[in-house]
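Residues determine shape. We examine one folded chain.
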Amino acid sequence: MHLGLIGYGNIAWGLTDLLAEEPLDRLTVLVRPGTVVRTRQALAGCRAAERCQVTGDLSDLLSDAPDLVAECAGHGAVSGPVPQVLQAGVPVIVVSVGALADDAPGPVPSPGRRGGRRAPDPACGGDRGHRPAVGTCAGG
């Protein structure tokens, strides 16, 4: 599997630590252009995947064709690169689900068809985790 990450802070660091137990084929991490070198240093000896790549350019992430992208960068990423990733047909897991509760989160596409694939409701995990009795997610 090829996983893309948007951001490399505490959440992504913890995720890559967990992935070391069963490494992926590839990991591509998108960070702000000014943090590429620092992130490469942090991922030196990365055991989360056989091949780890860090980029500051969304087009590089998309051209690498990840199977799945996990947003781990915060609210700005949900209205920034996430819609573009979905438009490219790549499924996204939104970790910063609080951004979806904002009154005006920006151009976040609603769940549905994007690029020929079904985009899962990104808030399901957060919704189930915070309000399990509500059951607003499909199947929940």
Remarks:
- The two ends are 27 Å apart (CA to CA).
